[in-house]
From TrEMBL:
It comes from Rodentibacter genomosp. 2. The chain crosses the membrane at residues 36-54, 75-97, 109-130, 142-160, 180-200, 221-247, 267-294, 306-323, 329-353, 365-390. Pfam families: Nramp. Keywords: Membrane, Transmembrane, Transmembrane helix. It is a multi-pass membrane protein. One of its GO terms (cellular component) is plasma membrane. It comes from the Bacteria. One of its GO terms (biological process) is iron ion transmembrane transport. One of its GO terms (molecular function) is cadmium ion transmembrane transporter activity. This is Divalent metal cation transporter. It is found in: Membrane.
Amino acid sequence: MANNNRNALLGAAFLMATSAIGPGFLTQTATFTQSLLASFGFVILLSILLDIGAQLNIWRIITVSEKKAQDIANAILPGTGYFLSLLIVIGGLAFNIGNVGGAGLGLNILTGVSPEIGAIISGSIAVCIFLVKEAGKAMDRFAQIMGFVMIALTIYVAAQTNPPLGEAVFRTFVPEKLDVIAIVTLVGGTVGGYITFAGAHRLLDAGIKGKSSLKEVSKSSVSAILISSIMRIVLFLAVLGVVSQGITLDPKNPAATPFSYAAGNIGLMIFGIVIWAASITSVIGAAYTSVSFITSFSPKIEKHKNCWIVAFIVISTAVLATIGRPAQVLVFVGTLNGLILPISLGLILLAAYNSKIIGDYKHPIWMTISGAIVVISMAILSMITLVKYIGNLLA
């Protein structure tokens, strides 16, 4: 396989993984670790299995059909592609406001500039990536570098907090307590909404498609889940090391506590780098993927897609800088991401048995079964979560 293809496959894996690792990812991981302690390991394990089941199906069908998700959906049931695109773009825009906010907070910690100014600077950096000639390659390389930086720094902090590894391993398989909302949030935050499509659409744009590419695409899709899961596990251990010593996380910024505990002010600076890297890569991934859901609807959008991506980032940054981060909207959209997954994955599974879409390709039965399990379980769990969320609002 050509070197360009290898770079694109690695870039797609990191784009998807770093799109998942945003400020919400850091906060959720810290918060659920504090409430579930070592048993959160079981939730992580379960979410990894569900994530792989979802992502393998989606990436393979997109690759073999050589169509983007919205076009597959429209081919299955006319109009559903437009509906799916609407959900993705709304969710992506709302999340990007939070992502830009996280980047602003990171620069605030690192340099002392206000979070709003930090957001504007970060948004400008993201825009610059899409103004260069080889924007796709620049995006791939940036995602890889930031991914390595985040994981390496968090491993250092986890080692300093001295987590109870034996207890963490044991409770990963024999949990003391479970939380349905945690499962939905983790799966929705890793492969829900736009995130799982980030790498698959990137591979199509890089020209990696067709049955001949399935083996490499499958490896890339699982690698993407494993990269984001490594970050999740390492952060879980870092937080567990702190809370198991009776230390309460800062409610305003729970993910920062293990960093400051492990290395004082230097640790806080490390957290600033981690949250900035997590946020800026999510800004790029959300903008790129959201726009990829509308490019096939008009040749003009496809021709000027980088301009549309820039506009998406500018709007997200402007909303954050002027209105702020609408917390309740972000929480609701997080639940919406969990609901989008059974819809999008359900349509993909239907496409797997439509010869007009996939030709003579035979989709493995075990993948269909694993995908169906994800669709059914996430639909039920998401509805339970949504009912709880609405109940809390009305209470």
